[in-house]
Amino acid sequence: MNAASETPKSGFDLIKWLLVFVILSLVVVGNYIYELGALERAVAIVVLVIIAGVVAGQTEKGRTFINFAKESRTEVRKVVWPTRQETMQTTLVVLVATVIMGLLLWGLDAILLRVVSFLTGLGI
Question: How far is CA 106 from the centre of its chain?
Fold first, then answer.
């Protein structure tokens, strides 16, 4: 059984996606054609993008995405975030490890440079 037979498709989904494409194309083309002020241009772009989002949300894939976003938001609420002290300690550990690795790599690079200079006879 394939995925296409499991999810019923609306005949209007293709039309809705074409409408979304046309609206977003209008945003791009209209931004270059019309000489509006920055505020009017920004408001027009935001309104047209919201309209395109609403139309896309009416499709099967759009409803699936909205459902996924709601479930993701619920899962993010369950996350136990670290305290400020834990964050600072972890950041300090990462910084110290980065400095140590940087110094080790710098030292290894200097040693290898000396070895290659000695072997090739080039005074670098």
Answer: 33
Cα dihedral sign for 75, 76, 77, 79?
Answer: positive
**12 touches 63 (CB < 8 A):** no
Tens of pLDDT, residues 33-46: 888 888 888 898 99
Which of helix, strand or coil describes residue 109? helix
**Are 28 and 67 spatial neighbours (Cβ–Cβ below 8 Å)?**
no
Residue pLDDT, tens place only, 49-73: 999 999 999 999 999 999 999 999 9
DSSP characters for the chain?
--HHHHS---TTHHHHHHHHHHHHHHHHHHHHH----HHHHHHHHHHHHHHHHHHHHTSHHHHHHHHHHHHHHHHHHT--PPPHHHHHHHHHHHHHHHHHHHHHHHHHHHHHHHHHHHHH----
Task: Check if the beta carbon of residue 57 is closer than 8 Å to that of residue 66.
Answer: yes
